[in-house]
Amino acid sequence: MEKLVDVFLTFPSSQNLSDQELNKQAATLISTLNKTPASTLASNSNGTDLLTILNPTANSLVYLYVLIARLDLGGRNALEATWKNAVLFLENFDSRQIRNAPDMFRRLFEAFYAHAPLIAVRPIKKAIIRYNPSRFSFMHTSFLRLCLMTKCYRDAAAVLDIDLVEFPYVKNKPGETENMSNSRKEVTYQDLLCYFLYGGMIYMGLKEWRRAADLLTYVVACPGNACSLIQVEAYKKYILVGLLLDGKPLPMPKVTSAAAVRAYKALTKPYDAFAQAFKSGSTEMFRTEAALLSDVFRQDGNTGLAVQCMDVFRRMQIVALRDTYVTLSIEEISKKNLEVVGRGGDAGGKEETEGVVLGMIERDEIRASLSQSEPDYKLSQTTVHFHNNPLSELRNLRALDSQISRTISLTKQVKAMDRKLGLSKEYIQWTNRLAKMAGGGSSLLSMGDPDAMDFDYGGGWADDEPEETIMQDFDDEI
Amino acid sequence: MASSTIHAFFAQRRADNSLVVLDPPKFDLESYISNYTGRTQIERLLHIGLHSPPLCIEALKLAVKALKQTSDVPRYKLVVEQLNKLAPDDPEAVMDEEWVEKTSRRVANSTEKIEADLKSYKHNLIKESIRMGHEDLGNHYYASGDLVNAFKSYSRMRDFCTAPKHILDMSLQIIRVCIEQGNYMSVQSHIVKIRSLSRSPEEEEILKPKLCVAMGLTQLASGAFKEAAKSFLETPPTLGATYNDVISSNDVAVYGGLCALASMERSQLKKEVLDNNDFRNFLELEPQMRRAISYFYTAKYSNCLKILEEYRNDYYLDVHLVKHVNKLFEMIRSKGIVQYFIPFSCVSLKSMAEAFATNEKTLEKELVGMIGKGVLNARIDTKNRLLTAKETNLRTAVHRDTLAMAQNYERTARMRLMRMNILRAGLEVRGPKGGQGHPSGPAQGQGWVGHSGRPQGFMERFHMGS
């Protein structure tokens, strides 16, 4: 046992090894660990807890194996006993080491988050950020589901705000069937769709409609040759979020796959009708439509969003008044009868309307002021005075500045992407074909001998896509 | 007395939501209708008969009289039945069975005869004769009121036309039939056909007015008032009475004037209407239109609108205008309001209501509608009863637009990056049968790879945004 501990502690031999060196050492260690029985790993060494000897950061790999061994032997209770250690590990592990044993890590993760959802949120958040936040992993989807269940939206947003630029490569090898490969895959497309859908829902919870819409767009416009029901769910929410954001349904993204467009059109008719009624601005029509569809919304679990839409309907109509009037009495606004939610009581009445307008002014949704004609509240007529002095220029300029910096970072991502694609097999094949079409004498040949490239990659994809469609694709889409 | 039946009939029509013009129009029926010849005369009389209680009997009687001179039996029956409904006791409301019998027989006979002739021409394969045969048949159908067959016969002439003159004749005939049928698509295509033909200056002189008004009518029917105004304004005064089986010179003045009022700026009105020598000849026939336009030009909108309002009934009783009167009036009115408001930054609703001869309530409603449509760039101050111009701050507007564009761009770019990444990783949505090979993945993947095929353009787009 002591000998083993010594072996464990000598890995890694130094803190600043190169990746290659580290992986080599890790492989040796893992083979040793795999040979060691779980009971040995779980036992104590010389009366001291092995986990106290090990450092979760420096000896991440061993730490992980010990944790798993205990879980295997002890079941539920063991997790309770080692909870603190597990938290310590998740918050401090060294991602370079852990990457060598993803399966083990996944086991720990799954046991961990199933055990106690609410207190698991923070450690998992830290774990994701430590692991590699810009690479989509199995943790992402589970984490968001966890956050949704526990309503820890802010924690989820911290992860969501990091752009995903890498995805696990899950393309099937030639000759492999879907079922065979599914078990090997780290993630499936369903995980990815769910991740964005959950992300959208989390931003809805935070009432950040713009971000919610962005994430839903990814689901709605996800490429493919079929349509997933997850996408249909997302599209329903996408319509409602569009209403909350802009007062009109967002356009379907141009790149939505044909199969998806067909499915949306067939399956989301009630939502379309709802959106049209909203857009028409006619209270009467919107009210009837909302009443008709309340069952649909309940079934889809979208009642909350729909009710918010109804609430926003009135506010948007009031905002629209700004373009027509300079002053308008509260009485006239309430006469327009814009209240749709139907909470009963004073809703839609004069005083309630005044409250709504006041709230909107406070939240800066409209720039206006209220004035009362008499000092006595009972007699007074309240008038809304819409200002037309626009937002301060400074604010706009600041927003522009931050936009510029965001665009610059985006450009970097694009360059990286461009490079990645430039190195991909498809692109090289394509340039080769171009070169052949041009007579084979062009400088493109300098990129390498086509046969050798084919040999190197050895992929088995059909090359029946004609170039013309590729070019058109490009012209249409940006 | 007949008045009760008339009353009942028009009450019924009003209940059916069709137009009824209660007050008598300004024109004198006899002199109005004498401006026209041919079928349009009857068409117009029938229109008046169906829409104007004060004039219906007189109009229908005139129509019956005119129809007796033709061989259009179906229409004769229709008019007499209508008259019978309105004035059952009137001696003239009785069907002249003998005439119907005689005329029907004559029509049938001559149809047979002309068709037989045509057959023999076809047998002999003489193009010119066949063409004339079709033309005769077309004329015959036209005279007896069978417009569908007339159109067909005229259209059949096309294959046998040997000279441009023939095509010209054929097209003119078709235009006449189609205007009556309301088939303005054909009218337009035939006008284009005629315009593409080469013609001598003399022919041109005769043709131009007809083409101009036909084009104008087409544009009017499709609601393109600005283009219609242009066409009517271009019409040479040589039109005179030459096209009376379709349109009179008075109509040109009215149609052109209204369309111009509805679609042109004040300076344009001055330059293209009032100072237009050709059009002045037409306007002299309708002095009230001239006055209305001058009032509009001199910004006396209430006078202009008053004149037009007085003549509204006349316009309702015109076959070509009836569908557009309300729209045209609304446009003229709202244009008047916009023009009226231009020099002000702030106007009291009261003085504005006076200028447009309405009360404040309706004016306010109208203004709200106009602002909503984006026609009028102003806001209403309901407390102080004012209409104030919107202040626009171009600088902030530009900032705002830039920001919106950049954000939009960023979103699109992010979405595309995400898509490319997803495709690269093979995470695209697949159908349940995705097991066998790669139905779409690789193909789509290639589509995206194509982007880097033009890296330069691709990157430029990104730099533009920053």
Describe the structure.
The complex is a heterodimer of chains A (478) and B (466). Chain A folds into three domains: 188 residues; 119 residues, no CATH class; 81 residues, no CATH class. Chain A is 66% helix and 3% strand. Chain A has a three-stranded antiparallel beta sheet with strand order 1-3-2. The C terminus of chain A is likely disordered. Chain B is an all-alpha fold. Chain B has four domains: 95 residues; 87 residues, Alpha Horseshoe (Serine Threonine Protein Phosphatase 5, Tetratricopeptide repeat), CATH 1.25.40.10; 128 residues, Serine Threonine Protein Phosphatase 5, Tetratricopeptide repeat, CATH 1.25.40; 46 residues, Orthogonal Bundle (Arc Repressor Mutant, subunit A), CATH 1.10.10.10. Chain B is built from 23 helices and three strands. Chain B has a three-stranded antiparallel beta sheet with strand order 1-3-2. In chain B, helix 10 runs antiparallel to helix 11 and helix 16 packs antiparallel against helix 17. Chains A and B meet through helix 12, helix 13, strand 1, strand 3 and helix 21 of A and helix 20, strand 2, helix 21, helix 22 and helix 23 of B. Strand 1 of chain A pairs parallel with strand 2 of chain B, so a sheet runs across the interface. Chain A: This is COP9 signalosome complex subunit 3 N-terminal helical repeats domain-containing protein. Chain A: InterPro entries: COP9_N, CSN3. Chain A: It holds the Pfam family COP9_hel_rpt.
Give a brief rundown of this model.
Chain A: Residues 26-258 form the COP9 signalosome complex subunit 3 N-terminal helical repeats domain. By secondary structure, chain A is mostly helical.
The major sheet of chain B is characterized as: 3 strands, antiparallel
The unreliable regions of chain B are 434-466
Q: Uncertain regions of chain A: pLDDT < 50 for 5+ in a row? A: 441-478
CATH class (first level) name of the largest domain in chain B: Mainly Alpha
Main sheet of chain A: which strands, in order across?
A: 1-3-2
Return the CATH architecture of the largest domain in chain B. Alpha Horseshoe
Distance between the termini of chain A: 63 Å
**Helix amount of chain B:** 55-70%
Oligomer, anyone?
heterodimer
From N to C, what is the helix and strand string of chain A? HHHHHHHHHHHHHHHHHHEHHEEHHHH
Strand order of the largest sheet of chain B: 1-3-2
Strand percentage of chain A lies at under 5%
Domain PCI (chain B): 224-394
Subunit structure (chain B): Component of the COP9 signalosome (CSN) complex.
Family (chain B): Belongs to the CSN1 family.
Protein name (chain B): COP9 signalosome complex subunit 1
